[in-house]
Amino acid sequence: DGGITQSPKYLFRKEGQNVTLSCEQNLNHDAMYWYRQDPGQGLRLIYYSQIVNDFQKGDIAEGYSVSREKKESFPLTVTSAQKNPTAFYLCASSSDRDTYNEQFFGPGTRLTVL
Amino acid sequence: AQSVAQPEDQVNVAEGNPLTVKCTYSVSGNPYLFWYVQYPNRGLQFLLKYITGDNLVKGSYGFEAEFNKSQTSFHLKKPSALVSDSALYFCAEARRGANNLFFGTGTRLTVIP
Fold it and tell me: pLDDT by residue for chain B (113 residues), tens digit each?
């Protein structure tokens, strides 16, 4: 999974709680991404960041928040406003903003709402 | 709107036979196209990409893909399938100058011993 770590691997949340998923990369990549994966729907982009202290909403940002205070870290917070948070969450990075560069993915965090 | 289509949810092939996983794209002009593979409970691994140039792209693990502009397709192929190729395969596209990838819904490949 190429220099990107995600923690925890499994996460259980009670309804109404906020949780934060960790993503760290040691590839010196500028761009980082968060995706959500649901069965039969492929990957959908939540947020992305092309540079420190800057990030943009993706296709399904509602109920999520991110920060990019350091180049190597891009944590994702799943808030209580996210109505259906149970999913597999994948973090990725690429060397720069140009999308001809392949993205490197972490191993994922599986979030389950109890 | 940009999108890629993977028309088959499931592909079964016998070990040793050639395999094809289909992908069509809809971006006009010259898209960037990618194939990724996902093993159970793991992240995605990059296999290959088409940016420009030769329409036949060779990638990891003996996979290749052919960019066909007239058919707007980018099918993934391998001459001889291995049981270890069994996984979920995703096609993705990006428009030049855009900020992110658009993924297909995935095709589950099962190689039967």
Answer: 558 999 999 999 999 999 999 999 986 777 889 999 999 878 899 999 998 888 999 999 999 999 998 999 999 999 999 999 999 999 998 866 666 788 999 999 999 99
Interface mutation target, options B4, B9, B67, B101, chain A, most CBs of A under 10 Å: B101
**B96 interaction partners in chain A (CB closer than 8 Å):** 99-100
Please give the DSSP secondary-structure letter assigned to residue B60: G
3-state helix, strand and coil shares in percent for chain B, rounded to the nearest 5: 5, 50, 45
Which residues, other chains included, contact A41 with Cβ-Cβ below 8 Å and sequence gap of 6+?
A: B105
Interface contact A105-B95, CB threshold 8 A = no
d(CA A19, nearest CA chain B) in Å: 20
Could B41 and A110 be called an inter-chain contact, meaning their C-beta atoms sit closer than 8 Å?
Answer: yes
Residue A53 parent element (H or E):
none
Nearest-angstrom CA–CA distance, A42 and B31: 19
> A64 in contact with B at a CB cutoff of 8 Å?
no
Residue type, A34: W
Say whether B44 and A4 touch across the interface (CB within 8 A): no
Task: Show the tokens assigned to A53.
Answer: 């202290």
Residue count of chain A: 114
State residue B3's pLDDT score.
80
Q: Report DSSP state, residue A103.
A: P
Question: Average model confidence (pLDDT) for chain A?
Answer: 91
